[in-house]
Amino acid sequence: MNRVFGCKKFGRLSSEQADRTLSDSEDRFLSKHRAVCPSCRKAEVTTTCALNMLRMATLEPEVEPMFEDRVLRRLKVQQVRESLNYWSPALIGASIACAVVFVTLRIASAPVQTQRANLPSGEARRENYSRTAPKLELDHAPVLR
Amino acid sequence: MSYALGAEAAAQERTWVSRCRMGDENALGCLIARHRNRLIRTATNLLRDRHEAEDVAQEAFLKAFREIAKLRDDRAFSGYLYRICVRLCMDRLRLKRAELVEFDSAQPHCGGHVENRVVIEKLLGQLPAELRTTLVLREMEQLSYEEVAEVMQVPIGTVRSRLHTARERFRKLWIEAVGE
Prior knowledge:
The complex is a heterodimer. Helices cover about 60% and strands about 0% of the residues of chain A. By secondary structure, chain A is mainly alpha-helical. Chain A is elongated, with a radius of gyration of 51 Å. In chain B, helix 2 (about 25-45) crosses helix 3 (about 50-65), helix 3 (about 50-65) crosses helix 4 and helix 7 crosses helix 8. By secondary structure, chain B is mostly helical. Chains A and B meet through helix 1, helix 3 and helix 4 of A and helix 2, helix 3, helix 5, helix 6 and helix 8 of B.
């Protein structure tokens, strides 16, 4: 289809006329262009039709009856989770410190276990094992020069 | 449909917001009850899915209440909440892949209301998130240019050009779908 001068301007003004009041000169331009350009005329009709269909397809909200309760419950869960996230490094640090203190105290308070043999009242003993007398091997002695 | 409140409602909302800051659960409930319909409606029209829309509305409330202490102006709560909701919807739309649907032009599409809705959903699915959001906020939610610009945090000129592009693309997709 043949397009004439000003089709772009017509498209822009045609779109804007739904949103604002056009000036007289803009209105005149639209009327003149509409009269001479069948392509723009058709485009305008199709746009109007398409946008009407779009407006007709508007969906109305269906709010669930417990919506508020669900939001409030989620809000509480979120607050608990956030406070846990905030305090968790401190809690972990504190529990590690507690564990260290506990282990240290436990080690310090445990009685010292000494071997019975080392006790003062213990009996001193000497291990008896067979000893063989050293052998002198003079024949193999190195000769000193 | 504007998201701005009347003077009396705004004053009441300011009270609720300040009570919310002090942890008043009743005030939270009042704020939810006031804004839930509008949020769910907008989210439903943007996402075209009622369950997802409710989920987004809940998320928006949670996010707004979490940040309520940081809100400088109590009067701004309504717009702040709406902006969060629209932004969450846009994030979800960006994650969804554009559905490329081939329409059977030989089949007449002059059918009923439900069929029209299905076609519209498929057409909207092919628009980028920014264009789709601008179109829906203007045509379905009937927000003004200024309100759309504030919600999307873009200049009015950008809204104007996006709206023009969105209408043009929607028209072309519509022609492809229903035939000449």
